[in-house]
Amino acid sequence: MDRRFDDLFTDPWNQVFQVVFYPDRVYHAAYLNATRSNRYRYNVREVRNAFDITVLKAGLYLDGIFVTNVLRVEYRAGRLNEVAREQGRLLGDKVGMYMKLLDPDQDGEAGPESLNLLLHYDKWINAYQTEIWETVAPPPGKRHDFRILDQIGRSGPITSVFAFKGLMARLFDVRRIELAFHEPDTESITRRKITNPTWDNNYLRSHQVPNSSDPSSFKNTVLDRNYLLDFRRGYFFSNLRDLAPVRYKNAMMDPGNPDQGDDNIIEMRWIVQREFASSVVFFHEVTIPPGKVEGTHRHIGTEELYCITEGTGIAYMGDGDDPANDRYPLVDRVVYGFDKRACRELPVQPGSVIYTKSGGIHGIRNNGDRPLRFVAFLYHTV
User: Fold this and answer.
1) One domain, residues 314 and 166
2) Residue 278's closest CA among 52, 126, 115?
3) Band of the pLDDT at 26, cuts 50, 70, 90?
4) What distance in Å separates the CA atoms of residue 166 and residue 109, rounded to the nearest whole number?
5) Rounded Cα distance, 299 and 15, in Å
6) Category of 6 on φ-ψ map: left (φ > 0), alpha (ψ -120 to 50) or beta
7) Strand, helix or coil for residue 9
8) Among positive and negative, which fits the CA dihedral 72, 152, 118, 67?
9) Do residue 156 and residue 273 come from a single domain?
10) Are residues 41 and 97 in the same domain?
11) Which long-range contacts (CB under 8 A, 24 or more apart) does 190-194 make?
């Protein structure tokens, strides 16, 4: 691997903005499948994470000669373990995986898929994993090392998928990969056939699309039913106001909330949603018209950050959530899905930031004469 990675990593002038390179450094290179033999080397070029999932794109070299493109998937199975135990079962040494590669030549909407890929439990990384190689054939005049041969096969930790052949040849052009995970066909302990395997397909996850201008229209909610790993390397929006908003009536309010009204409509411009990696759910801009309200709500298992960019208003934060807020007025607020809770009234203006951690309460009211706007990040904490 390029010596410059080591030089940059150890440069004392780089300690404040430490740059960490994936290729054969922080990513346990010794535990990639072919590294049982020191004749193999991986050049990991792109990595994406989503919750329990890590996907790597790499090139594989044998004795310094390029062999194949590699797509490696690791899955730590937190959600699948949960739903399997609800059925009285435990996961064994293998889980199933659905994968779809979205073809960049078809605007990312078409591409091959495979339903029955197997992931194998690897104690070294405490996760299930598989490596899909474009080809498992060695270069001309070479033979694979005997120490990796037992991993190669149709259902092995190193495999090749015929349906993926075309896109694997240009793997680094593939920008979007959809994944879901399921129990295998056979129970790990009793070896009995599983007739109703459970799935981890991004449980109830959806994203918002402005298909209708009707406030709170069901047409604007699209169910995902899988995880998206987005390998696009960047996004630029010249003006987010060019994005069509999705409109919501009485957002985060239960029936009977005194702030409700037929004209209490706010707008959200969904800038980035599924494209985010890790546990980030969305980044969007919210517009609250004068006199309107986003309902006070509580975060359980998620965190959210608001940054006010335009207008003035009153934000509500749970009493005691930030002890420094004790100097602000104390009021009772109806909290979405809960009873009334004591909250502090916080004056907000451009530059104000509201950061709510799991268990915290927030909401916001526009008390000015022009639109109140803020951008928001939301992400899961578990």
Assistant:
1) no
2) 52
3) very low
4) 16
5) 35
6) alpha
7) helix
8) positive
9) no
10) yes
11) 194/89
Same structural domain for residues 194 and 154? yes
> Could you give phi then psi for residue 165, rounded to 5 degrees?
-50, -50
Residue-wise pLDDT tens digits, 259-276: 999 999 999 999 999 988
User: Per residue in 79-127, pLDDT tens?
Assistant: 999 999 999 999 999 999 999 998 887 665 678 888 889 999 999 889 9
- CB of 110 within 8 A of CB of 56? no
Q: Are strands 280-288 and 221-223 parallel, antiparallel or unpaired?
A: unpaired
Q: How far apart are CA 69 and CA 101, in angstroms?
A: 14
pTM for this prediction: 0.89
What are the pLDDT digits (tens) for 358-380? 999 999 999 999 999 999 999 98
Range of the domain at 41: 3-200
Amino acid at 370: R
Rounded CA gap, 370 and 224, in Å?
A: 36
Task: Give the CA dihedral 343, 344, 350, 355, nearest 10 degrees.
Answer: -60
76, pLDDT greater than 90: yes
